[in-house]
Design brief:
The protein is of the alpha/beta class. It has one domain: Rossmann fold. It is built from 9 helices and 18 strands. The strands form 4 sheets. The protein has a 9-stranded mixed β-sheet with strand order 1-2-16-15-3-6-8-7-14.
Length: 318
C-alpha cells in the first residue's frame, strides 16, 4: 500500500544503498581529528571511541537508550535495575571525558525512569549546570497514570569556563495581553504577523514537536530527536566550526543539524540502517537546508508555520 499523500517520512531506496554505504566508516586504529570531522562511524561506540583523538570535541550530545524495553533495528534494549543502568551509563560516559576540550559542554537525554541515574553519573565526571525538561507532545494518554509527556536533558560542562550564547536561542512568543507604556509597546513588537515578544530561553521547553509522518525530517527510527531541539543546544553551546559529537547517533539528527548551522560533526551509530538514513539526510541538506521551527534566526512557538511563511513573503516583497 502506498503511503498517504502527505506522508513525508524519509525512506531508503535499494538502488541508493551502495553509494550511501561508501559514506560510512569504521575506526580500527588511532586517527587524527581531521579524519573524524563530518564522519558517520558505523560501529559500537565502545569500539570506536578509543581510537578518537584527545580533546577534540567542543560539544557532546548523548541520547542513549533509556531504561526501557525498545527495539532499535537489529538491537534490543531491555530494562535493567537502576544500579545496572547506572553502571552501563558510567561505562561509556567515562570514556567520553578524554575526548572533550577543557571548555566543552555536554547534554545527556533521559526520561523520568533514567534521569536519576544519569544525574549521578554526570556528577562523577562533569559539573552539572542545569536540567532541561521538554514537553514531548506525542503519544497516547494513560488511563491509570499521568500521560508521560516530558523528557529531561542534563546540561553539564567540563569546567566552569564554558561557552553559552543565550541570545542565539531566544523564543518568539505571541503576546496575549500586551502592555503599553506611553501608548507604545513595552518589551514586545507588533508587525503584520501579530504581536510578539522575544524571550530568553528557560530550562522548560514547550515548543518542541517530535518528528511525525508529515515532517520531512522524519525517519523510521523509534526515538528520533527533532532538529529544532538539537538546534537550540548547538546554537547555545557551540561556535561556528566547532566539532559536535554524538555517540548514539540514531538516524543522524545531531549531524544534520550541526551541518545546517555551520558546525562540524562526528557521529557513531552501530546499526547500519540508521547510519544510512543519517548519510541520506546529510546528502539532502542542500535541498532541505531549513530547520522546522527556527526561522529568521529565532525559534518560534508550535503551530506558527503560517506566520513564519507570511514573514518570509513580506521580506521578499520589501
Amino acid at each position: 500500500m502506498p503511503p498517504a499523500a502527505r506522508n513525508r517520512t524519509l525512506m531508503l531506496q535499494e538502488d541508493e544503498l551502495p553509494a550511501l554505504r561508501r559514506k560510512l566508516q569504521r575506526l580500527d586504529a588511532a586517527v587524527p581529528e581531521a579524519s573524524i570531522r563530518d564522519s558517520i562511524i558505523c560501529q559500537d561506540c565502545m569500539e570506536a571511541v578509543p581510537h578518537m583523538p584527545d580533546a577534540c570535541v567542543d560539544l557532546l550530545f548523548v541520547d542513549p537508550p533509556y531504561n526501557l524495553r525498545k527495539q532499535f533495528s537489529n538491537t534490543s534494549f531491555s530494562p535493567r535495575s537502576a544500579e545496572d543502568y547506572m553502571a552501563w551509563c558510567d561505562s561509556w560516559l567515562g570514556q567520553m571525558r578524554r575526548l572533550l576540550k577543557p571548555d566543552a559542554s555536554v547534554y545527556i537525554c533521559g526520561d523520568w525512569r533514567s534521569s536519576a541515574a544519569l544525574q549521578q553519573v554526570c556528577e562523577r565526571h562533569f559539573t552539572i549546570q542545569n536540567r532541561i525538561t521538554f514537553e514531548r507532545e506525542k503519544g497516547r494518554g494513560a488511563k491509570r497514570n499521568w500521560k508521560n509527556a516530558s523528557e529531561d536533558i542534563w546540561f553539564c560542562t567540563v569546567s566552569n569556563d564554558y561557552y553559552f550564547n543565550a541570545d542565539a536561542v531566544k523564543l518568539r512568543r505571541q503576546v496575549i495581553a500586551p502592555y503599553r507604556s506611553n501608548g507604545k509597546p513595552k518589551d514586545w513588537n507588533e508587525d503584520e504577523t501579530g504581536r510578539f515578544r522575544l524571550t530568553h530561553p528557560s530550562n522548560v521547553w514547550t515548543d518542541i514537536s517530535i518528528p511525525f509522518w508529515s515532517m520531512p525530517e522524519n525517519t523510521p527510527h523509534p526515538t528520533q530527536k527533532p532538529e529544532k531541539l538539537l538546534a537550540k543546544i548547538i546554537l547555545a553551546s557551540s561556535r561556528p566550526g566547532d566539532l559536535v559529537f554524538d555517540p548514539f547517533a540514531g538516524s543522524g539528527t545531531t549531524g544534520v543539524t550541526a551541518k545546517k548551522l555551520g558546525r562540524s560533526f562526528a557521529m557513531i551509530e552501530q546499526e547500519e540502517e540508521y547510519c544510512l538514513y543519517a548519510a541520506k539526510r546529510i546528502q539532502e541538506i542542500p535541498q532541505r537546508p531549513h530547520i522546522q521551527g527556527y526561522h529568521d534566526e529565532v525559534f518560534w512557538e508550535r503551530n506558527t508555520l503560517a506566520l513564519q511563511k507570511q514573514g518570509t513573503r513580506r521580506g521578499e516583497s520589501s
